Amino acid sequence: MKAALLCLAVSAFSGSIYAATELTYWDFLGGGDGVRMKQIVEEFNKSQSDIHVTESTLTWGEPFYTKVHTGVVSGQTPDVMTYHLSHFAAGIQNKDLRPITDEEMAAAGLKRSDFQDSIVQRSSELSKTFGQSDQLFGVPLDIHTLVLYYNKTALKKAGLLGTDGKPTGTEGIDAFNKMLGEAKAKTHLLPIAASTNTEEPASFWRIWYTMFRQQGGDFLKDGKLTLTDVENQGAKSLQYMADWMKNGYTPKATNYPSAVALFTAGRAVFMINGNWEVPTLVDLDKNKKLTFEYGVTAFPKLFDNNETWADSHQLAIPNNQKNPASPEKVAAALKFIAYVVKQVTWAGGGHIPAYLPVQQSEEYKQMVPNNQYSAQAAKQVSLEPALPMFGVGGPTFAPISNFLVPAWNNQIPVDQAIKQFNAELQKFVQQQG
Amino acid sequence: MKGKRFSILGALCTLLTLAMALAWIFPIYWITITSLKTEDQTIVVPPSFFPWPPIFDAFVYVLQTSPFIRWYINTIVVSVTVTFFSILFGLMCGYGLSQLRFPGRNLVYTSILVGFMLPFSALAVPLFMMLNHFKLVNTFPGLILPQIVVPLSVIVFKQFFDDVPRDFRDAALMDGASNWRILFRIYLPLNWNITWAMAIVTFIGTWNNFFWPLIITNSTPMLTIPVGMTQIQLAYGVQFAEICATAVLASIPTAATYILFQKRVTQGVIAVAGIK
Amino acid sequence: MQSLATESAAEQHPGQGRKQSLRQKLAPWLFVLPFFALYVLFLAYPAIRVCYLSFTNSDIAGQGHFIGLDNYVTLFHDGDFWASVVHTGYFVLLTVVPNTLMGFLLALLVVRQKRLRLFVLACFFLPFILPVSVVSDTANWVLDPNFGIVNLLAGTNFAWFQDPALAMPAVAAVTIWWTVGLNMLLFIAGLQNIPQEYYEAAAIDGANRFHRFLNITCPLIWPVASLVLLLQLILQFKIFDQIYLLTLGGPFNSTVVVLLYMYRQGFQQGRGGYAATIALMLVLIIIVVSLIQFRVLRIKRASR
Question: Could you give the CA distance from residue C211 to residue C203 in angstroms, rounded to a whole number?
């Protein structure tokens, strides 16, 4: 016993002597994503002895980006961090991100063409527009997007399950609404579980933005904010969603865990949510806790095209102005980044790997239920508008939460909500010059 | 006849009191039993009011996946340090103001009385700037120092010391005792009850403080329990049992303090509020 | 009297020179200084600083320059600020008097009890010692629209904190549940201070329960009641924690209170100078309202 303790003490001691480079790593990953990332970090630390990574998890969203920004200003940053592609515009503009040169990437064995093209392309556009730079400001880890979860057992009972094991009414909004109505009448279940309260504006935004994009709506014309589409396609999309609520197709003011619980408890036919809930269902199914058979499919084509909201987790290096990162730290950070993006473990969170060799690997293609949606979902990616006000942690979520979500809940009229939403966005444009 | 009617009224009153008390405590009971269910039991309709056997999965999960232990240690360090120094300095300052004469005494006391009226939260902006300037944001000194300043404890101790009969002090001075000795050997033991009560109330108050830790901390390892528990992520799956387990874990220290020292807490609370 | 005592102590050691007496003069400061130094540093100085900041365009790190009355002009025209004042006032209205009355009622019920006393007292008081985050988690779980026990038992699906009409009253109700124990304790202390003989004498004079309550309990508890009201008023104006945790100011900003607005401007948007102006206005409002209340309650007491 004593000997064992001594051994442990010695190994802990020697560990700290030989770990040449200490990296601090900030992320915003909770739940299963957090567990998987911790596992990846541990494995990385065990796989070599030159670099030791210490991970710290902060609150997702605006708090995370506020902490990063204060860190950059005060000179207390991590060495590497997770970042949303949708926050790049703001992050680059605020000089929170340090460019990663192609040479630095190459030294870690990475090149741009290894990654999903649509993601890299957007990333480099943002570099040019907001950082006047040809470099990337982050290395893509994944794509995450909206998917449609469905209760096969309930659909089969209602006669709404096709022979391919997928729901029948997914072509066009009218067919979709008809299917929801029938599902409700025949199963007496809630047609769609979704998070509908104001604390979760992101859930609303993902669905609404998808419908808006599928009708050809866009916030940007020639790189400038334009709100005419919001008044047309935007108002139409919101009206469809408000009607869902009026018809009892979606639950009123429901918070995130309740929305998931409604689906997992078998009280809802569908759930519209991000692919990150895949592991929840996989685990419940494995432990025989689900009372029904479930399926996952890429978000349906409800309008003219099948574009679907998506974002990408990136790994980035903060632009510490007071204590700039040494070349050794940058090299170590990139070595760590290169390790992380190559792990198929991460796809266990339902995310689509951005690193193409992983995305095309047999191991990934065999993953269930990821293989039910990922190939199609990767093709219909529609990223957030390329302006600093949008994206995770952006100020746009305040008016979304204040006006659009209440309109969804039938608390204020759609046209009024759209008008006020647009007025708030105009204010942001004025503030940002 | 009359007596009997009264006792029926009395019984009804007791029944009403008991019903209200149970209703009042019910939410606490409810989160406690929810924390002892599995996640899928929490969403069963109708829910079980007496889940048996209790399941501790949620507690295990919270303790394993969040830095709860670290937050516990932080909160204990902060609460104990704040309580110790605010009581010690409060006793000293209260004694000085009550028993000693020196130039500037009235000025000091008046300014402390004014300070008592100032809402701490209104000073958050300059306080943050100052601590930021001294690089104390996200540190223990940053968390602790501003919380030690409790004008109320000075005021309470001064008033209690004012009530101590003069003879005690005069006799001690005759014997050549120093003021330090008089404070810690005579005045403190004479006011042991109120000191304890103040210490317990300060401890609970510091443990529960939400606003200041929210502002002055910015990294997960430095959070205290009340702030940390709100950062446990909800964006994945069903987590009702876990949320309830978090709440139960966060309440144990203060709830235990209250149940152990019920009388003292009551006394302290009345002293704190009733002083004006 | 006291100064005499100190002097007599000094006379105990005659002939030790002026040095000693100077030391003796400064010695009291050793008692006062530890607290007072911290007080000046962390309370007095920030209080002065907040006034100065309100005349600057400082960011949250304190970098900025003097801009005169600009912040006050902006604030005066800032509809969001005035809305937050109105919301705070609404919350004060929903809590101060109800919380005081509820405390009084519970105190009346509890003092009657003998064997059950400690138990019921603990039931009513226990919520008060919980951290606010536990209170909000509890409220969110008990009142959840889909799975909350209240809605399940009532067969409803109210989203209490998400409905513009219900949000503020719901936060107020949670606040009362959380803090009424304190008021109850103060009233119990007050009730116990009323001499039992008054009731006995009145009973002999033939006054019934109701009359005794009206003519003895009410006037004699009034000093406590006015104290509780004042404490409540000052406390509830500072509402932040429950709002931050339960509604975050929503739905459509209908529950943004002054301190939340200050927090957003200062710590989220980095406008330190403007946030200081907001804080200063809150202090001003609290002072004015408590002075008014103090006056009103005093006059009432005097007229009795």
Answer: 10
